[in-house]
C-alpha cells in the first residue's frame, strides 16, 4: 500500500443530508469514516430548501407519504429514526423551529443551522472530510484480491486526492434534480456497475407544462393562485395551484407531479371548498351575470378566460344566472369540479425538487440499506427508489435511511 493509500472502515460518497447522518452514526459507533463530496460547498440542497429555512421533517411522516416500487420498504427505517429523533437533535443544538402547516417543520432562522449542526456532529464523531474530491474509479475485491487486513471484502475508491480502501462503501449521492448545484447520475451508474438494478427515473415535485393550444388563454395570468384539489393515478392533493408562463405549479401540482406519467390526464377541482349547486340554487332568479357571481369564489381574470374557452369544451355564453337552463348550470358546475387536462411534460430536473425512481429497493435490505448481492455496499437517501411527498418527507427519508446504514456499516 503506497503513501497515498488510506485504509478505513467506511467511505461515504455524498456529504448531503443522508451522507452526513450516516457518517455521524457510524463515527459514534467507533468506525473510522471518510466522508467525501465533489463540491466545495457543503449540503447545497439543504441550504436552498424551504426558502432558505429548511423544511427538515414532517411530524406526520408515515410510509403512505412515500412513493416507491416497493411501498413497504421504507417502514423499517422510518420506524427506527423518527421526526421526533431529529427534533431532539435540533433541540440539543438550540435550534428554534416552527410548524408552518400540515406538520411541516422549518427553522425559525436559517437552513445553515441544520448544515452546521450536521457538520458539528460529524466532527464530534471523528469523521474525516475529503472535499472537494472527485471519485475516479471504484472496484470491489474479494478473497485473494483483498488486502490481507480486510476481514471480508474491500472497496478500492480512487480519487483525485488519494486511494481509499474500505470494508464498507455508502452511496449518498442524491438524484438528478437541480443539476445546477451539482446533481449527477453517479449513484445510478455505480449501482449498475455492480449489477444492481435502477428503476426508471423522472422529475418529481415539479411544475407541469401544457401545449400551446391547451393553455394559451392562461399564459398571461402567471402568478394567480387558486385553492384546488388535483388528482391523478388514484392520488389527490388539495392545496394551491399556481398559474405560470409554461403551465401550472404550486403545492398541489408539485405533489401530483410525482405520480403523473406522460399521456395521463390530471383532474382539477377548482371549487373543492364550495357547494356550487347550492350557491347556484340560491341565485337561481338573479339578474347577476354568472361570471360576476363566480368571481366571488375564483379570481376574476381566471373566470373571464374560463368562460371564453377552456381546453376541451366550447365557450360559455355570458348572461344572467336566471337565463341559463338547469342543465347548462349543472354542466358548468361539473366542469368546474372536474377540469381534465393532459400535461405535455414537466419543467424538468432543473426545477424538480426530487428524482422519482432510483436504486431498486428489492435489491437492498430494508433494515440496513445494504445491497443483498454486494456485501458492504449501501445506498441511502434520494438515490434510492423512495420518494417523499412535498413537506419535509424527503429530508426525513434522508435522516432515517442514513441512520439505518450508519448503524450497520
Description:
The structure is a single chain. The chain is of the alpha+beta class and 409 residues long. The chain has 2 domains: 5-202 and 354-406, FAD/NAD(P)-binding domain (3-Layer(bba) Sandwich); 208-346, Elongation Factor Tu (Ef-tu), domain 3 (Beta Barrel). It contains 13 helices and 21 strands. It has helices spanning 17-28, 44-48, 75-80, 83-92, 112-124, 186-193, 212-215, 251-257, 276-282, 290-294, 300-308, 326-337, 393-406, and strands spanning 5-13, 33-36, 55-58, 66-67, 97-99, 104-107, 128-130, 135-142, 153-159, 163-171, 202-204, 208-209, 225-232, 235-243, 247-249, 266-269, 339-341, 345-346, 354-356, 377-379, 387-388. The strands form 5 sheets. Strands 1, 2, 7, 8, 9, 10 and 20 form a 7-stranded mixed beta sheet that branches. Strands 17-16-13-14-15-12-18 form a 7-stranded antiparallel beta sheet. Strands 3-6-5 form a 3-stranded antiparallel beta sheet. Helix 1 runs parallel beside helix 5 and helix 1 (17-28) packs parallel to helix 13. The protein starts with a strand and ends with a helix. The relative contact order is 0.20.
Oligomer: single chain
How far apart, in Å, are the first and last alpha carbons?
23 Å
- Show unreliable segments: 146-152
| Biggest sheet layout | 7 strands, mixed
Brief sketch in words of this structure:
With 409 residues, the protein is an alpha+beta fold.
Which features does this protein show?
27% helix, 409 residues, Elongation Factor Tu (Ef-tu), domain 3, alpha+beta, FAD/NAD(P)-binding domain, 7-stranded mixed β-sheet, single chain, 21 strands, 2 domains, 13 helices, 7-stranded antiparallel β-sheet
